[in-house]
Amino acid sequence: MRPLFNADAPGAAVLVAKNGKTMFRQGYGLADLATHQPIDPGMAFRLGSITKQFTAAAILLLVEQGKLNVRDDFREHLPGFPDKGTSITIEHLLTHTSGIPCFTGFGEYEANMATDMTVEGMLATFQDLPLEFTPGERFEYCNSGYFLLGAIIEAVSEMSYAAYLANNIFTPLGMLHTAYEGHQRNPVTQVRGYSHDEENFVTADTLSMSQPYAAGALVSTVDDLARWDQAISSCQLLPEASWRKAFTAYTLNDGSSTGYGYGWDVGDLHGSPKLEHDGGINGFATHAMRLPGHGLFIAVLTNSDSGIVDAKEIANDIAAIATR
């Protein structure tokens, strides 16, 4: 790890756990270039799309509480969303197979990403657009689907997304430093995020976290992510069947596999199951990987979205070493 990060540049927090025991935990590089504060592995980072697995778990909790079903047409819970002439299920949203256009791909997204938005205001940016394909026809990674899942969580639970996750996931599991950014419950240093231009690292562009919302707005630490892995391994929060469903790749209408479950990429490493997800958001690139056959969990959280080694590449290299 050490040669991958310069001591005077953005870096990473890295954790490797085996069967619930932390085997490796280290920080590299700087948390703040202006003050030269080094990264400590106990610091918090933006997770980006690793957020999606928590949103998916919240949906499954509501299923267990009898408040919805993943087979429901999502408009049963968000009746204000325009009818598209075909059923779009909650499962389609979970698996990126809905056909709804992705708002982060719109040309005007970057120009407006610093603007605070309401949930309704964000929905208005894509809800009237036609579907890009028939639901279930193909896999197309889509932040709009997970934004909608956050709105469903709020509508069904009658709580804010931030509060529902805090009360039903983070607090019960002792994840004290995981939260929707701006709604942190306990003080912890959050590292600054950077981008790399042609020559230097610069402060990342401002992003209102009201926009990534349930698709990417959580912050956490490597220690809390290890707690999350242990909760999954011991079937806390949800029964084994629900976790198994989250880790099962969705099958398209034509019978082919998407390689994606509910908020997780589903694959293998040398024939052993591999469950993972990366995250890319202003100032940060992240990766979390579970190798349940080896009892391994790997988290790599970096505080630059460019100019350093890819977090997923690092996690895969660590996995190769840890499974020798």
From TrEMBL:
Keywords: Hydrolase
Alphabetized InterPro entries for the sequence: AmpC-like (IPR050491), Beta-lactam-related (IPR001466), Beta-lactam/transpept-like (IPR012338)
Membrane-crossing segments per the record: none
Record bears the keyword Hydrolase: yes
One GO MF term attached to the UniProt entry: hydrolase activity
Domain of life of the native organism: Bacteria
Residue stretches making up the Beta-lactamase-related domain: 8-321
PANTHER family per the UniProt record, alphabetical: BETA-LACTAMASE-RELATED DOMAIN-CONTAINING PROTEIN, D-ALANYL-D-ALANINE-CARBOXYPEPTIDASE/ENDOPEPTIDASE AMPH
Protein name as catalogued: Serine hydrolase
